[in-house]
């Protein structure tokens, strides 16, 4: 059963006391904020970039697990958790906003950065989805508007829009997910995310946002792992936001009121280190759990860990 607690900056004593010296290995999962869906038959937002080093589990975009980091006692490792792309509609802009990057940095490691998800294309003119960790979907103003590109080893491309013979309307593309391109599960759907067991149980994160369905004959579903659902033009239904701390993309805005795309979900950074080496010194109040002989720090907001 996981032990759950929270330790502030400079905490020490008991569980917080270091039990061993010298450098040690630190596994990570770094997920950026998801992109928001586009306005007015917009495309679904792309999931935030997904990078993993734990237990040979894949990173986003079909990439392999990365090498674990090596932490040194006394070194401060800064954790940045990216916000999801904010909802954005006319008249300021039709396109969804990209999510913000998440990262781990320190003086003795190469910075690990995951790229924010791409916003969905939006508005009355043909628009492609934005590039990002995973790409945003193309908007539904005409068929064949391509999705944005995902970042290598972080996420997949967004889906393209298409002219739907079942409704006579134009449906937008789903946002790319960490584990699949947009539209993989059917037209308009967001791509699924990737499952990780870094916290001790399997959790899927990094789903893309669903696209806009013109006339209720497609699912509009966000990808597994926090992707928001897209809106529907006829009779008109709202998009939903990506789930917080999953990096999920926001759903696409409807062509009918309400037209705003859903916001992207914020990212998360998770570190897994040997309990014998855990210093107990953090900022930003990460959630602290244990699994077997390891301690897991889950940062839902920016902070730091001192090795």
Short description:
With 307 residues, this protein is mainly β. The chain contains no helices and 16 strands. Strands 1, 2, 3, 4, 12, 14 and 15 form a 7-stranded antiparallel sheet that branches. Strands 7-6-5-16-13 form a 5-stranded antiparallel sheet, with no helix packed on it.
Structural account:
The chain is mainly beta and 307 residues long. It has a domain at 32-61 and 87-265. Helix content is 0%, strand content 21%. It is built from no helices and 16 strands. It has strands at residues 5-6, 24-31, 50-52, 69-71, 76-80, 102-105, 112-114, 162-163, 170-171, 194-196, 203-205, 268-274, 281-283, 287-291, 294-299, 303-306. Strands 1, 2, 3, 4, 12, 14 and 15 form a 7-stranded antiparallel sheet that branches. A hairpin with a 6-residue loop joins strand 8 and strand 9. Mean pLDDT is 91; it is low at 1-18.
Produce the secondary structure layout.
Elements: E1 5-6, E2 24-31, E3 50-52, E4 69-71, E5 76-80, E6 102-105, E7 112-114, E8 162-163, E9 170-171, E10 194-196, E11 203-205, E12 268-274, E13 281-283, E14 287-291, E15 294-299, E16 303-306
Antiparallel strand pairs: 1-14, 2-3, 2-4, 2-12, 5-6, 5-16, 6-7, 8-9, 10-11, 12-15, 13-16, 14-15
């Amino acid at each position: 059963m996981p032990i759950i607690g929270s330790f502030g900056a400079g905490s020490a004593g008991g569980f917080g006391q270091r039990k061993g010296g010298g450098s040690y290995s630190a596994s990570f999962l770094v997920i950026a904020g998801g992109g928001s869906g586009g306005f007015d038959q917009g495309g679904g937002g792309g999931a935030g970039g997904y990078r993993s080093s734990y237990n040979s589990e894949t990173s986003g975009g079909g990439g392999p697990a990365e090498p674990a980091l090596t932490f040194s006692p006394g070194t401060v490792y800064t954790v940045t958790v990216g916000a999801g792309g904010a909802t954005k509609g006319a008249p300021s802009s039709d396109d969804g906003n990209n999510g913000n990057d998440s990262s781990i940095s320190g003086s003795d490691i190469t910075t690990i950065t995951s790229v924010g998800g791409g916003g969905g294309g939006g508005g009355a003119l043909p628009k492609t989805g934005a590039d990002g960790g995973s790409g945003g979907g193309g908007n539904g103003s005409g068929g064949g508007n391509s999705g944005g590109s995902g970042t290598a080893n972080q996420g997949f491309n967004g889906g393209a829009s298409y002219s739907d013979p079942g409704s006579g309307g134009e449906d937008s593309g789903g946002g790319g997910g960490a584990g699949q391109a947009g539209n993989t599960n059917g037209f308009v759907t967001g791509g699924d995310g990737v499952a990780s067991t870094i916290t001790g149980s399997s959790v899927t994160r990094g789903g893309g946002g669903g696209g806009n369905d013109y006339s209720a004959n497609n699912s509009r579903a966000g990808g597994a792992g926090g992707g928001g659902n897209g809106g529907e033009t006829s009779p008109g239904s709202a998009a939903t936001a990506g789930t917080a701390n999953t990096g999920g993309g926001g759903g696409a805005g409807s062509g009918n009121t309400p037209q705003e795309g859903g916001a992207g979900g914020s990212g998360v950074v998770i570190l897994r280190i040997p309990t014998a080496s855990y210093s107990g010194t953090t900022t930003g109040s990460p959630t602290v759990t244990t699994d077997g002989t390891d301690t897991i720090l889950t940062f839902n907001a920016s902070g730091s860990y001192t090795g």
